[in-house]
From TrEMBL:
GO cellular component: cytoplasm
Highest taxon above the source species: Bacteria
SUPFAM superfamilies assigned to the protein according to its UniProt record, in alphabetical order: Winged helix' DNA-binding domain (SSF46785)
Protein name: MarR family transcriptional regulator
Signal peptide boundaries: none
Lineage per the UniProt record: Bacteria, Bacillati, Actinomycetota, Actinomycetes, Micrococcales
GO biological process, one term: response to stress
Gene3D superfamilies assigned to the protein according to its UniProt record, in alphabetical order: Winged helix-like DNA-binding domain superfamily/Winged helix DNA-binding domain (1.10.10.10)
Amino acid sequence: MPAVDSLVCFALYAANRTTTQAYRVLLEPWNLTYPQYIALVTLWSDGPQTVGGLGDALQLDSGTLSPMLARMEAAGYVTRTRGGDDERVVTVSLTARGSALRDELTHVPRCIAAGAGLTDADSARDLIDALHQLTEAMKSLRDHPGTVLDAVGAPRRRA
């Protein structure tokens, strides 16, 4: 067994990478990427969003988000319009084609859940809750590394 197989970070990396690859296979007939899909899911659920709000929701920076939205607009899935009072604010909305994709892609979450071995809504919710907890814990480590370094007695390297 490779040494990396015993690392939590590698298990998370491998699971994330393989999940994204599974989405790629499921979304390929629609020529959609996983980030485009989650943008659509957000717009389906929450309605029109500013580019900034969508970026926050998807945890994507504008350098990644803007070109993606341009491709989605060229494909006819979304429109981008500048705000009335502040021309810097751009709102992203679904087109009729983008809205219609919701019905065409209803199988995707079910396929992912089945592929992950999630047999019911409770098992899915448990996994989602555990992943949210992990995300918050890693944000805390990212934002306050000294606290964790001290807690585990790790040496600090001086720059």
